[in-house]
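FAQ: What does a ligand-bound record look like?

Like this one, built around zinc ion:
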Amino acid sequence: MRPKAAAAGTAEPTEGQEVFSPDGTITRVSISKRVKRAASTDAEAAAAEVTALQNTGPSASRFDMVIVGDGYTASQTGLLRQHAQAKWNEIAATAPWNKYRQLINVWLVNARSNESGVDNDPSPGINRDTALDMRFFCGGLERLLCVDEPKAKAYAAQAPGVDAILAVGNTTKYGGAGAPSLASVSGGNAQSGRIAIHELGHSVGGLADEYFTPGTTYRGGEPREPNVTTDPRGAKWASFLGLNTPDGGVIGAYEGGHQFERGIYRPSQDSLMRNINKPFNLIGLTAMERAISSRIS
Ligand SMILES: [Zn+2]
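The answer part, i.e. the structure of the complex:
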C-alpha cells in the first residue's frame, strides 16, 4: 500500500493558475490540484445536442472551435446560444482569427444543467447542480472560474471535430480560467471574452506568457515557445527585429516573460500575452496564423 501523497505537514501538489483583472493585467497563483480539478473521477458526459453557430465545411479541412455551456437549463438554450455567439463574435473580430473567420467551424454543445448559474456566484457557499460544475472562488480566488475539465472535454468530444474548447458559464460576473487544452469564461460578461483570446494563445498558438512575477529569475534552458528566449538579442525572432508591432513599439528583446522577471526576454513591451486588452505582437500573430491555418485546407 502506498503512503498517502499529502501527509500532514507536507505540501499538497499545486499548479500555477492565471488570474485576470478587468484592467487587462494577469497574475499567477498556485492552487491545489485537488481544488482545481475537484469533482469528477469519471469523464462521463450525457448525450448532448450539438448545433453549429457556423459550419463552413468538413471538419477534416476546417479549424473546429467547440463551445460547451454550463449552468444553462433546458429552457435556457436560447440564452446559451446568445452567450456563445457573443464570445465567438469577439474572438472572430480579433487578429488573426478575423482572417480565418469564414474557414472555421463553431460548434455549440448543449450540456444541459439541472440548475441555472454556476457555484459561488456571486459569493461563496452558493451551490448549483450543473453539468460541468463551474465555480467562482476556485482556490479561494473570486474571479477564478474553474470547470470540471474531464467533463468539459467529454462533452466537447461530441462535436464533429475539436481543435479548441471554450467553456462558457451562465453568469454575468467577470472571470475565467485557462487549462492546457481549454478555457473557461463568463458567458454573460462582455469583458471576459478577452480571457478566452489569451488562453487560445496558449492552447492553439503554443505561446508563452509575456508577463512576470517580480523578483523571479529564469534559470532553465531555451524555452520551446516561439515568443520567449534566453537570448538578450532576440535572435529567435531575428527577421522581425525592429518592425512595428500591433501592440505598439517595435519588436526587440524586452526582459521579463514566461512569468520570470530576469533572465528571459519577450518580443514586445505589452502584447496580449501580457495584457489581455492588447493585441498579439507580430511573433504571436505569426504563431497563431500558422497554427490555425495548419488545420485548414
Ligand atoms: Zn497565460
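Follow-up question: can I read anything off the structure? Yes, for example: The chain has two domains: 37-203, 212-293.
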